[in-house]
Amino acid sequence: MSTYVFRNQTIEAFLGDDGVAYSGYGDISMVPGDVDRYIWFYQVPVNADANQLAQEITAYIDQLDLVLSGIDTAKPFIIFSLVNLFPLRLTGDEVAVDEAIAAFNSHAMRLSQQRPGVKWVDFSEFTSHYDAATLVDWKYYMMSQSLLNPKLKRDFKSWWQRIEEEMALRRMKCLVLDLDNTLWGGVLGEDGVDGIQLGGDYPGKAYSYWQRALKQLAADGVILAVCSKNNEADVQEAWEKNPAMVLKREHFSALRINWQDKATNMRELAQELNIGLDSMVFLDDNPAERELIRQMLPQVEVPEFPAKPYQLMPFFKDLVGKYFRIYAVTDEDRAKNKQYQANALRQAEQSRFTDFDDYLYSLDISIDVIPADEHNLPRIAQMTQKTNQFNLTTRRYAEDQVNRLIDSGWHICCMAVSDRFGDSGITGTIFLEPVDDITLNIDTMLLSCRILGKGIEEAFFKTVLNLMRLDGYRKLTASYLPTAKNGQTADFYDRMGMTCVSKEDDGTKHYEMMLNTVFEIKNCYNIRVL
Amino acid sequence: MNLEDRILEIMREVFEMEDVSTTASQKNCERWDSLHHLTLASEIEDSFDIDLEPEEIAEMTDFSRVVEMVKSKL
Asked: Do A159 and A15 sit in the same domain of this protein?
C-alpha cells in the first residue's frame, strides 16, 4: 500500500519510508493521485509570537480543505490531530494558539464525520503518555526539523500499528450483553431487584457509568441486545422498579433471557436482527460462556471482560475503539459518497480559495533577490553543501571558492523569503557563469526544501533572468545533473520553457533558450531586487 | 559483541541494509543521508547510554569516526 504524507516537519523516523512518500515542509502544491491513501500529520510549529502562530495554525484548515478538494473522496485520508508539544505561555493568556489548535481539530473531526474517506486520529492518545521533556528533544529539533523526539520512534511505531489495525477492522453493528455481573453487580435471582449493585457508591457507581456509556453507544446507532440466563419476569421487574436502572427495555432491540445455551441464543438473535454473526460482539463476565461462543461461533467477536467494576470505563473506551469507531469505509459510507460529492461541489464554490494561485496570494509571500556579498556568502556556500532535493547540479562550493567565482565575473545572487507566518531567511541561490558577451550558463540553482511548493523557484528564476536580460544577455544554457535526491527538479528547465538539446545515458540533460522576451511572473509575490 | 560489531549492527538496522562494512561513510553509502544520520546518532546515544553534542554528531561521517567518538565517551 502506498501512502502520501502531508507534513510540516521531519517525521520520516516515525512513519518510515517503506511505500511512504512525503510532501515538502508545508507543501501542498503537489497532490499525487496514484497513491492508496493520504496522511496529514502536522506539528504545531515553534513560534514565540502567539498571534502569528495562531494565524499559521488557522491557515492549516484552509490548506487541508484545498488539498481535500483535489482528492478522490473514496480514498482514505487520515488526519492526525494537532498537539501543542511545546506550549510557550509567556503571559499565561495566549488563548489564541489553543483556540486555533482546537478549531483545526474540530474541523478535522467534523470532516471525518461528513466525508467518507476521512479518518481522524487523536494524536494526543500517544503524546499524553509522556512529559514535556521526553516529547521534545531540542538537540535533535535544532539539527533536523523534528519536534517529536526521535527516541520515541519505537513507541510511536507500536502505537501507530495498533491504530492501523483498528482502522482496518470492520465496524461491528451489535453489542450483545449479559446481565448479572455485566450490566450490574450481583445476581438478580439471588440479590433481588433492590439488592443488585447499581447506583449509589462503588461498586454500584461503576455500573451506572457503564450503563450510561452504553446508552450513548445505542444512541449513536449501535444495536444493543441481551443474552442472559435469568427469569425474564425478574429482569422486567428490575427494569421497571429499580430507580438506578439507566438501560431499560426500550434500549434493547432484541432479548434472549432464558436458560437455553448462549450459542443457540446468539444464532437466533442474528436472525431476528437480520445481521451477520460476524458483526456481533459478545460481552459476558463468565469465562465459560465466552469460551463456548468462541468455540461454537468463531465469527463473533468475544473480548475479555474486566475483572473489577472500576475497570469498566477504560474497557468501554477500548471496546469503542476496537469495534465501534467509524474508521473503515463501510457500505453506508459508500452510499453517503454520492450525496457528499454533491455537497462538496457546492462547498467548493463557497470555499475561501477558488484555486491554488488564490491560496498563494493569501500567503503574502515576499521574495528579496540579493546579490552575493560578505554577509550572505557563508550562507550561500553552506546551501551548496547541504541542499540535495531542489538542486539542479548539486555542485558543492566552499566560501573562498564562491568568492573567486564572483571575482572572475560570475553573477551570483541569493534570495530571502518571508510570508505572513514568518521569515524563512536566505533559502535559495543561483550561480550564473558568463560564457561570452551575450551567453550565460546556469552553474548552480538551488532552493531549500523549507520553501518549496509555492512556486517561489519559478519567480526567483524568472526575476533573476529578467535582470540578466536587462544587462544585455540574450542566450541561456543550463544542465540538469541527476542524483538520488533531486528527481523533483528533472523537468524544472522544461517547465521554464527551455529546450532540451541533448540527453546523456545517466539522465543528464542540457538545455538552451534565447532571452528574447521578458518572463512573466505571477503577481502572487512581492518581489524586491536589492 | 565488541563495540565495533555493536555499532555495525546498529548501522545495519538504521540503514535497513543487509551488510554494512567498516569502510562505510556518508560519501560511499547512499542510505547514510542526513536523515538516517540523525537516527543513527540517536540510536547510538540510546544503545551506549551516552550524550553526543550536535558538533560531535556532525563529525561522525564514517564508521571509524563513529567508533572513535563512542570510545571517547565511554
From this structure: yes
pLDDT of A234 > 70? The answer is yes
Q: Does A225 touch chain B (CB under 8 A)?
A: no
C-alpha cell of residue A433: 557563469
Burial bucket for residue A98 (CB in 10 Å: 0-12, 13-18, 19+): middle
**What gap in Å lies between CA A17 and CA A3, rounded to an integer?**
10
Regarding whether A162 and A178 lie in a shared domain, the answer is: no
Report the Cα–Cα distance between both ends of chain A, in Å, rounded: 48
Region A202-207: mean pLDDT is 94
Q: Is A357 inside a domain boundary?
A: no
**Average pLDDT of the residues in A337-345:** 47
Q: Which residue of chain A is at minimal alpha-carbon distance from B58?
A: A143
Query: How close A429 gets to chain B, by Cα (Å)?
Result: 21
Burial of residue A240, with CB atoms counted within 10 A of its CB: 0-12 exposed, 13-18 middle, 19 or more buried: exposed
- Are A418 and A284 members of one domain? no
Residue in chain B closest to A387 (alpha carbons) equals B34
| CB A197 within 8 Å of CB A208 | no
User: What pLDDT, on a 0 to 100 scale, did the predictor assign at position A168?
Assistant: 76
A372 and A510 fall within a common domain: yes
Chain B closest-CA separation from residue A44 CA (Å): 21
Instruction: Please calculate the CA angle A218-A219-A224 and round it to the nearest 5 degrees.
Output: 15
Asked whether the predicted pLDDT for residue A345 surpasses 60, the reply is no
Domain identity same for A243 and A155:
no
Cα–Cα nearest to A479, from A447, A452, A453, A501:
A501
Which of B27, B33, B34, B46 to substitute to test the interface with A, most A CBs within 10 Å? Answer: B34
Q: Which helix (H) or strand (E) holds A266?
A: helix A262-273
Q: Which among A342, A372, A391 is the end of a domain?
A: A342
Please say if the pLDDT value at position A343 is more than 80: no
* Higher-scoring residue by pLDDT: A88, A268: A268
**Domain range holding B11?**
3-73
Instruction: Examine residue A352 and state whether it is found in any structural domain, yes or no.
Output: no
A368 to chain B, any CB pair closer than 8 A? The answer is no
The whole-model pTM stands at 0.71
Residue type, A526: N
Residue B39 with chain A: CB contacts under 8 Å: 13, 150, 153
Compute the nearest-CA separation of A69 from chain B (Å): 32
Per the structure, how many domains does chain B have?
1
List pLDDT tens digits, range A237-275: 999 999 999 999 999 999 999 999 999 999 999 988 888
> Which domain does A79 fall in, by range?
3-169+331-342
Between chain A and chain B, the number of residue pairs with CB atoms below 8 A apart is 30
CATH of the domain at B19: 1.10.1200.10
Here the CATH number for the domain that contains residue A70 is 3.40.50.1110
With a cut of 50, which residues of chain B have pLDDT below it?
A: none
Count structural domains, chain A: 3
Q: Is A10 on the interface with B (CB under 8 A)?
A: yes
Same domain, A372 and A317: no
**Which residue of B30, B33, B54 is in closest CB contact with A143?**
B54
